[in-house]
Amino acid sequence: MRKILLVSGVLLLTACGSYSPLNWLTPHTIDVQQGNYVTQDVVDKLQPGMTQAQVRFLLGTPLMADMFHANRWDYVYTLRNGSTLAESRRLSVFFDAEGKLSKVEGSAMPARRATLDSTPAAAPEGKQ
Description:
Residues 35-103 form the Outer membrane protein assembly factor BamE domain. There is one protein chain. The protein is of the alpha+beta class. Helix content is 21%, strand content 27%. It contains three helices and five strands, in the order αβααββββ. The protein has helices at residues 2-16, 40-43, 52-59, and strands spanning 32-35, 64-65, 72-81, 84-95, 101-106. Strands 1, 2, 3, 4 and 5 form a five-stranded antiparallel β-sheet that branches. Strand 3 and strand 4 form a beta hairpin. It is elongated.
């Protein structure tokens, strides 16, 4: 019992100092993705004059829709590795008074494409 009290007292005293030998003893923080993951190939499909329903079909429901700017939708994406911000993207879509797409601003994520070789593998000799 006395050893446990001694060890706990030492741990409490070292944790209170500005330099602690227990800095490695921190809680685990997970990677967190938040928002809309909008890729560039989907943004390339947007065309001026599209309706809001068509834009929502391609990009999904916007993360932020401002009631003071009803003609603007914001698609925000953040990735945190632990407690540090690793990546942040913002894409804004603007509509005219009739609800048609007028312009797109911001940056999207790069397209995720499979890296497959387009040439078929050669068949072994004698087998076709």
